[in-house]
Amino acid sequence: MSASTTEEAKTGMKLTLKIWRQPDATSSGKLHTYQLADVSPDMSFLEMLDVLNEELNAKGEDPVAFDSDCREGICGMCGLMINGEAHGPEVTTTCQLHMRSFSDGDVITIEPWRSDAFPVMKDLCVDRQAFDRIIQSGGYISVNTGSAPEAHSVQVPKDAADRAFDVATCIGCGACVAACPNGSASLFIGAKITHLGELPQGQAERDSRVVDMLGQHDAEGFGGCTNIGECAAACPKEIPLDVISQLNKDLRTAMLHGR
Ligand code: SF4
Ligand code: FES
Q: What is the pLDDT of residue 1?
């Protein structure tokens, strides 16, 4: 054994994983226990699951299904409840969480997002098309097509541009819903409302946007917001809770305008 291999063996962690396994959307599921030896602290959480799946494949067993795409904290595809916390113990996405956040001998419970509006499809994968339908209902601005306008033809104050940019970092991961005891998507919608509402281009549809997005939110089965704040604590992009105040303010204004 080489010196470097010996060193890796010394630093590798033994972990017990309790993972939600569910064959499909209509079957019931339960936690299954797996052991992993020699997990590097430098692995990402999803790489650790890749290693488990390689072992399951080698044994001819069904690998654990989980969502991921960019693995860079950008796309919003990944999302797991790790020991009861959305995206685990750090303020980051599951794909950017590293195993150095855990210790040798740890027992880690891994579950899918729990929300009526995000039904489990298989194992750790949930259907988040409800978010897509909320965006389709109003999370856009209508623009005329044609040649690009002159860059300074619509001026945006610096404070508004900064605020819009900050909340536009929402990646639609759904951790806010999973963390909320009510299963509310208010932080997600608040981020979109605030992003578009800060910009001149977002004003034409401002009233209809908030009414339609909240109507779709309720139709999808998301719960109401009672200002608990777990959503903002779990958000990997640190979307602030005050976007929900903006959401409520825009809704009141729309109702005053007769929407
Ligand atoms: S508000 Fe945060 S937690 Fe919710 S979907 Fe956007 S990035 Fe994810
Ligand atoms: S896989 Fe894209 S944000 Fe995690």
A: 42
Task: Record the tokens describing residue 217, joined without a space.
Answer: 């939110």
Which structural domain, as residue segments, surrounds residue 241? 128-141+156-256
Q: How many Å apart are CA 106 and CA 245, to the nearest integer?
A: 39
This prediction's pTM: 0.93
Q: Are residues 9 and 83 in the same domain?
A: yes
75 Cβ below 6 A of ligand 2? yes
Counting ligands in written order, which one lies closest to the CA of residue 184?
Answer: 1
Going by C-alpha positions, the residue among 73, 7, 80, 87 that lies closest to residue 40 is: 7
Residue nearest to ligand 2 atom 3, measured at CA: 73
- Cβ(170) to ligand 1 under 6 A? yes
Has residue 147 been placed in a domain? no
Count of domains for the chain:
2
| Residue nearest to ligand 1 atom 8, measured at CA | 173
